[in-house]
Design brief:
The complex is a heterodimer.
Chain A: E1 2-6, H1 10-22, E2 26-29, H2 42-45, E3 50-53, H3 62-80, E4 86-90, H4 111-116, E5 123-127, E6 131-133, E7 142-145, E8 158-160, H5 161-174, E9 181-186, H6 189-192, E10 209-210, E11 217-222, E12 237-242, E13 256-264, E14 267-268, E15 272-276, E16 279-284, E17 287-295, E18 298-303, E19 307-314, E20 320-323, E21 329-333, E22 337-345, E23 347-351, E24 363-369, E25 376-383, H7 396-412, H8 422-435, E26 436-437, E27 447-448, H9 458-467, H10 472-480, E28 495-496, E29 501-502, H11 511-519, H12 524-527, H13 530-550, H14 564-567, E30 581-583, H15 584-603, H16 607-628, E31 636-638, E32 644-645, H17 664-674, E33 681-682, E34 685-686, H18 708-720, H19 724-736, H20 760-775
Parallel strand pairs in A: 1-2, 1-3, 3-4, 4-5, 5-9, 6-8
Antiparallel strand pairs in A: 7-9, 10-11, 11-12, 12-13, 13-14, 13-19, 15-16, 16-17, 17-18, 18-25, 19-24, 20-21, 21-22, 22-25, 23-24, 26-27, 28-29, 30-31, 31-32, 33-34
Helix pairs in contact in A: 1-5, 8-20, 9-10, 9-11, 9-20, 11-15, 13-15, 15-16, 18-19, 18-20, 19-20
Chain B: E1 26-29, E2 49-53, H1 59-62, E3 65-73, E4 76-77, E5 81-84, E6 89-93, E7 96-104, E8 107-112, E9 116-123, E10 129-133, E11 137-142, E12 146-154, E13 156-160, E14 172-178, E15 185-192, H2 205-223, H3 230-242, E16 244-245, E17 255-256, E18 264-265, H4 266-275, H5 280-292, E19 303-304, H6 319-329, H7 332-335, H8 338-358, E20 369-370, H9 372-375, E21 388-390, H10 392-411, H11 415-433, E22 443-445, E23 451-452, H12 471-480, E24 488-489, E25 492-493, H13 515-527, H14 531-545, H15 552-565
Antiparallel strand pairs in B: 1-2, 2-3, 3-4, 3-9, 5-6, 6-7, 7-8, 8-15, 9-14, 10-11, 11-12, 12-15, 13-14, 16-17, 18-19, 20-21, 21-22, 22-23, 24-25
Helix pairs in contact in B: 2-3, 3-15, 4-5, 4-6, 4-15, 5-8, 6-10, 8-10, 10-11, 13-14, 13-15, 14-15
Classes of the chains: A alpha+beta, B alpha+beta.
């Protein structure tokens, strides 16, 4: 194919020429006028298969524009006499329609291009995006459209020269748009996954709730459109969600409150979602709606450029919206929370008709209308009790700065790892920060969600404390918060949320393990207030004693679990046939707790008690080895009958948390087992079930996936047992498994696939293990 | 042996109430929906009873039913009748009796004779497990509710419950309590908030029964006046007794429910506390328990239980009315510890002030009521078209509250504050009267000021002010409430005038006879000097109640209105 390039933009012309040549086309450039002795006359251009006018209108001055129009018109007239020659014109982004209504264009009318469509030539008009980047990144992919301004996955109407050229030359070859207009944007879908630009993709089903530390409400992305075709900003909505625990509800259900839709001049418009740790944006073609927090109980939503916001919800019986004094409206979600909507700038009009039969306002719709400057600012206050307007409100900027300062202060306390893990570090840190909960209801101190905004379990607190120990004050809160709701006989609850105290279950007593690890890193005598240490000692002592007293039904001196849930490995293979299992894992947890209590007693100067704790620990360890060590590995037994349960589950290796309290030969044997490639050891850390086991599954919870709690506890145990290099090696693998994959719950040791939902549990496992791998 | 033709002497009907005891979180009941068991009516028949939870909102999670209990003989299901007394329940069969009593609020004892046994059955959801506990016991855990340990003291419990890992549960529980060779069994069922355990020893059935009887008789002796009709008194007292819930979860003190299945409304608890005036420490405990749930800004929730509280709706401020009744019966200054007086005063001061700060958006000095939940009248015609309203009764309640705060302040030596509360109390009477249009009390829409005139009995609640109201106002209201004028009918005062277009006998606040309204209004008539009418209305109400006590308000109204009739 013979191609002639004309026009006023040298760089664009060069790039087109280069691409054409790369594809074997013969190219003659007439940019600037003649090519040697050849002028772009009718006779000359008639010898080409295609003529391309490479004029980037966006780069022209006013004068240049005038000149360009004249030249373009002359060329267009000439091309009318060459209908057999393909004539491709670079369009002007100002001519693109803003949206599908086709009643507004992006910029000014281009007189030449407006007339082009009437001409009898073999024309095609290829219109670049509004942002036409001469030095823009080449994505190597583009998204096509026609006459409406497109948006890429980053919410931008943008294309690089390189991607434009790619699309243009493809059109030369494919001939889709003869006598038609088309446009394109760079396809940034790959960049959407680039966490440097968009730390968390809210729209990928990860289950992320955008919220600030301490808050019980946030933003959840439903239906923002997974399509990345770029035909328009995607339709869809964001939702305000509540993260309060309701009696009778499975956590995470029935929690959607208001839906949010951006508006422009009264019409719903599409948007992309852009995430930053302390600000979420709904990016529209007309500007942004930005969301941040002023504090844990107040969210701000700000709009610009004439954007408005629609709020909508179908309410349950006895839930309603009511007008408050002034301009505010209060949403009453009975038993759950109140949302006070207060328009600080702009106005809020609500339709919330009362229904006497359902005793509710069954359907509410609110419109936030911008002020004369085109701005609005809506404050949303959340509380567990009836809400009240505040006496004063910070500005959006003040709110954003305050929340950002809090976030950055938290991030600063997360240790740094390798450059490759910088993004994972930030993502994990954000998940941890946003999962934090302020005291409310049953929670008397700070706590932290475990996963998907649900559960805050007792043993997970110990993992979190280990991970966040660089903020020792926070770690201390997490270590002791379960004691606040300790049972009458010393039992810790399974999990506690603001509205739920699940004490009809339990999880392992890993408190001792956490203490052992943390006491190696901190001086508890000077860093923890004595009062707190005594509180911890008393509470942990009760809990350890509870296990020895109430979880030894066959009175053999060794505690049992009553099902897999209690062990923390719900569907682990030891529990395939029986629920009541006693094994080395629970014995190790208890022994570790007894031993750690001895250490704490020493710090407190209670030497007699210290001696007793240590003796009990030694006794438990001795019994554990005598009963469960078969010379090669630890096994488990069925409670009462003592039928042997010889599984290939990682829980049999949990005694490693006892570190050097174990005989060296046992340490060496367990270490050797754990280092066998393709057994427990994989590229992403330790699997929960040996990969070669009959019981291994690439499904479920604990039948094979590399889980944070298992890796965290065993690797710290290896480290404490003196196997530091081995521990660090595996920790490195686990940590590197997070590179570019997000902080997700399950890692498949076979194909390294990861489940997409975010989990603070994994975040803490990653932080702790990366710290071990790279900083210890 | 019991036969199908024998008569039973039931304190209460199992269909209306459950067998439980004061402070217990569980009991034995029948499942109310679609049951086919006539046994609960005291008649002979087949069917099942259930262990059920009494823990308020927790009932929402599983309809209250925990596990099914059915009498068997040599393993065969047999017909039975249920006989109830306040402290013992019996399954009466032709082979003998199975007897149940609560030795303690958390400990149910069951014994059987003559080769009778008990079948225990349940279908479990995910994570629902029954597991062995100790050598002979079994533990059932109900997430977010309670744990139950079944232990055979005499006989054994054979349990067939296969563990299924894929479902993380023992999906089907089938157990049987088996008698010993001499044909008897005795089991204990112990409920704990957290995970259960087997005790080193348990009381025998006889010991448990004696303890249950003693606890009951202590309560009954305080509650039931001398010389009353024993069967009705017992039935009413039982309901009050059985509605008490001991501290757990969020609760630092006992609370009293209105029924077994919902959280405890604070306003009805005030009425019930008044009925418990002969047990002053218990009555005050109930009032103080509300202050434990008070928000820092003074708001008292509309209802709460061990898990949750509805702080998005405020409760009706009936605490003044309750304190008034208690102060009529007791000398607070000598009988109530000063720290309790102080706690009541400080807490209720904040509560009284809360209304003008948080429930007076138009700043007219008259608090608004936001919705029917706050008004305690959920399907009332008042709220058919209006949501936020101003009602005379709230001003009346606040008048009483301010008045009692004046009394408490005086007891605490706070003279100036006492005078101020007294002045506010008088102002609230005036505010109440501002709703009087010459013929009746009305309500007002908060937004538009439109008057609300629905002929609801609720508009007669200002009678709680008694003789603080002008005589002519009282006279007019009394005339309205006289037999033949649409409110006072057989059974008591209707919640909606019968001739009103909004009247519906299917509606609770639009046509039923409610014990709360009857109590407050009849008591108010008495206090206002309308003695004859009050006695007449009280007698009609009491006759209508008979022995049918299914909730604590009815029992409370029964005891308090009996004093009027006396």
């Amino acid at each position: 194919m013979k191609i002639a390039i004309v026009g006023m933009t040298a760089l664009l012309g060069e790039k087109i020429a280069s691409e054409c040549k790369n594809r074997g086309m013969e190219v003659t450039s007439f940019i600037g006028g003649a090519e040697g002795d050849l002028k772009p006359s009718k006779d000359v251009l008639g010898q080409f298969d295609a003529v391309i006018d490479a004029t980037d209108w966006s780069k022209l001055t006013v004068d240049e524009r005038e000149e360009a129009i004249l030249k373009a018109e002359a060329l267009a007239d000439l091309m009318c006499e060459l209908p057999e020659v393909r004539y491709i014109v670079t369009g002007d982004a100002g001519m693109l329609y803003v949206d599908g209504n086709k009643n507004r264009v992006v910029g000014k009318r281009n007189a030449f291009l407006a007339g082009l469509v009437q001409m009898p030539s073999n024309w095609t008009c290829f219109t670049p995006a509004e942002t036409f980047l001469a030095e823009g990144e080449k994505t190597g992919a583009y998204v096509l459209g026609r006459e409406i301004r497109l948006i890429n996955s980053l919410g931008e109407n943008a294309i690089s020269y390189d991607d434009f050229v790619l699309a243009l030359v493809d059109e030369l070859e494919q001939k889709h748009f003869i006598r038609k207009k088309f446009t394109a944007v760079s396809d940034t879908s790959a960049l959407q996954m680039n966490k440097e630009l968009n730390l968390i993709d809210m729209t990928n089903g990860s289950g992320t709730t955008f919220k600030a530390a301490g808050a019980y409400f946030g933003i959840f992305a439903d239906n923002t459109g997974k399509k990345r075709s770029g035909l328009a900003y995607q339709s869809g909505k964001l939702n305000i969600v509540s993260r309060r625990a309701m009696p009778g509800d499975v956590p995470g259900t029935n929690d959607r409150l208001l839906s949010l839709y951006p508006l422009y001049q009264g019409e719903q418009v599409g948007f992309a979602v852009k995430f930053a740790p302390t600000e979420l944006k709904m990016v529209t073609a007309y500007g942004d709606i930005s969301i941040t927090y002023a504090d844990a109980n107040m969210m701000y939503i700000k709009g610009e450029n004439g954007l408005g916001l629609k709020l909508e919800q179908n309410m349950k019986a006895k839930d309603c919206y009511k007008k408050r004094a002034g301009k505010a409206w209060e949403g009453v979600y009975r038993w759950r929370c109140s949302l006070l909507l207060n328009p600080l700038e702009g106005t809020l009009g609500m339709s919330a008709p009362w229904n006497g039969t359902t005793q509710s306002t069954p359907h509410v719709e609110g419109l936030v209308i911008p002020n004369a400057d085109g701005d609005f600012l809506l404050a949303i206050q959340e509380s567990a009790a009836a809400a009240m307007e505040r006496e004063s409100y910070p500005t959006y900027e003040e709110a954003y700065e305050k929340t950002t300062a809090d976030w950055e202060s938290f991030l600063a306390k997360i240790p740094e790892f390798t450059p490759e893990l910088a993004i994972a570090r930030k993502e994990a840190a954000w998940i941890e920060w946003s999962s934090l909960l302020e005291p409310s209801g049953f929670l008397k101190r700070k706590s932290i969600f475990m996963t998907l905004g649900t559960m805050a379990s007792s043993w997970q607190m110990t993992h979190q404390a280990v991970a966040l120990h660089h903020d020792f004050e926070l770690a201390t809160e997490l270590l002791v918060n379960m004691i606040d709701n300790i049972g009458k006989r010393g039992q810790f609850s399974d999990f506690i949320l603001d509205g739920q105290n699940q004490c009809q279950g339990l999880h392992p007593t890993t408190q001792g393990w956490a203490l052992k690890w943390l006491m190696g890193l901190h001086d508890f005598k000077t860093e923890m207030p004595r009062e707190t240490l005594e509180y911890l000692y008393d509470g942990y002592g009760q809990w350890a004693n509870w296990f020895t007293k109430y979880r030894d039904d066959d009175n053999d001196g060794l505690p049992q679990f009553d099902d897999g849930d209690e062990s923390g490995y719900d569907d682990a293979s030891p529990f395939v046939d029986y629920a009541d299992i006693e094994g080395a894992d629970i014995a190790a947890y208890v022994a570790c707790s007894l031993d750690a209590l001895g250490d704490v007693a020493e710090i407190l100067g209670r030497d007699e008690e210290a001696k007793e704790w240590h003796e009990r620990a030694d006794e438990m360890i001795k019994k554990m080895i005598e009963t469960y060590w078969n010379g090669e590995k630890f096994i488990a037994l069925r409670n009462h009958t003592h039928e042997v349960i010889d599984s290939e589950c990682i829980t049999d290796y949990m005694p490693i948390i006892l570190g050097k309290k174990l005989p060296q030969e046992i340490i060496d044997k367990m270490t050797a087992d754990l280092l066998v490639e393709g057994a427990f050891l994989s590229n992403v850390g330790l699997a929960t079930e040996k990969i070669t086991s009959d019981q291994f599954r690439q499904a479920g919870f604990s039948r094979g996936f590399a889980l944070p709690q298992a890796n965290l506890m065993i690797l710290t145990g290896l480290y404490m047992a003196g196997k530091k290099d081995e521990a660090k090696m595996i920790a490195t693998r686990y940590s590197n498994g997070m590179i570019n994959r997000g902080i997700a719950q399950f890692m498949n040791p076979v194909n390294e696939w990861k489940a997409t939902f975010n989990s603070s549990w994994v975040a803490c496992g990653f932080i702790a293990l990366a710290d071990m791998a790279f900083n210890m | 042996m019991f036969t199908a033709y024998d008569k039973l002497n039931n304190t209460f009907s199992m269909g209306a109430a459950s067998f439980t005891c004061a402070g217990a979180n569980f009991g034995i009941s029948v499942k109310m929906a679609n049951h086919t068991n006539p046994a609960h009516l005291g008649e002979w028949g087949n069917g099942a009873t259930y262990l059920t939870t009494m823990k308020g909102a927790s009932n929402a999670m599983n309809n209250g039913t925990l596990i099914q209990l059915v009498p068997v003989h040599h393993g065969r299901v047999i017909p039975f009748a249920v006989e109830t007394s306040p402290y013992e329940m019996k399954y009466r069969t032709e082979y003998g009796d199975i007897c149940c009593c609560f030795a303690e609020p958390s400990l149910l004892l069951i014994k059987g004779e003559n080769n009778l046994g008990l079948k225990i059955e349940k279908s479990c959801g995910e994570h629902g497990v029954i597991r062995k506990r100790g050598q002979k016991g079994w533990e059932l855990t109900e997430a977010l509710i309670s744990c139950f340990v079944f232990y055979p003291q005499v006989g054994e419990i054979a349990m067939d419950s296969k563990w299924e890992l894929e479902r993380m549960s023992t999906p089907l529980i089938r157990g049987e309590v088996l008698p010993t060779e001499d044909g008897t069994f005795e089991i204990t069922i112990e409920e704990t908030e957290d995970l259960g355990y087997v005790r080193e020893s348990y009381p025998t059935y006889e010991e448990g029964l004696a303890a249950a009887k003693a606890t009951w008789e202590e309560f009954y002796g305080k509650i039931a006046p001398e010389g009353g009709e024993k069967t009705a008194d017992e039935a009413a007292a039982y309901i009050l007794w059985s509605m008490l819930e001991q501290p757990s979860g969020r609760l630092k003190r006992s609370i009293i429910h209105s029924d077994y299945t919902h959280a405890a409304p604070t306003w009805t608890a005030c009425l019930i506390a008044a009925a418990l005036k002969n047990d002053l420490p218990l009555a005050l405990e109930i009032l103080l328990g509300q202050l434990d749930q008070q928000e820092p800004n003074g708001e008292i929730p509309s209802m709460f239980d061990h898990t949750n509280r509805d702080c998005l709706n405020a409760g009706l401020p009936l605490q003044g009315w309750a304190l008034n009744k208690l102060m009529e019966a007791h000398d607070f200054k000598t009988e109530v510890p000063e720290e309790t007086l102080k706690a009541l005063y400080e807490g209720y001061s904040k509560w009284a002030d809360w209304f003008l700060k948080y429930r007076d958006d138009d700043q007219d000095g008259i608090p608004q009521t936001e919705g029917s939940v706050e008004a305690g009248s959920e399907d009332s015609p008042i709220f058919k078209f209006f949501y936020i309203v101003e009602l005379p009764e709230v001003c009346a309640y606040l008048s009483l509250l301010n008045e009692k705060l004046a009394d408490l302040a005086a007891m605490l030596g706070l003279g100036a504050e006492a005078a101020e509360w007294k002045m506010k109390a008088a102002e609230y009477v005036d505010k109440t009267l501002a709703f009087w249009n010459g013929e009746r009390f009305l309500g007002r829409d908060h937004y538009t000021g439109a008057m609300i005139n629905t002929e609801s009995l609720q508009f007669y609640r200002p009678l709680v002010l008694g003789d603080r109201l002008p005589e002519q106002v009282v006279d007019i209201m009394a005339e309205d409430l006289t037999v033949g004028n649409g409110y006072l009918v057989k059974g008591g005062l209707l919640s909606q005038r019968m001739t009103s277009i909004d009247y519906s006998k299917l509606s609770v606040n639009g046509g039923s006879i409610l014990p709360t309204d009857n109590l407050m209004i009849i008591d108010g008539l008495m206090a206002a000097g309308q003695e004859d009418l009050a006695k007449e209305a009280a007698a009609i109400f009491l006759k209508g109640v008979g022995k049918g006590f299914s909730n604590a308000e009815t029992a409370a109204a029964y005891f308090l209105l009996k004093e009027i009739v006396k």
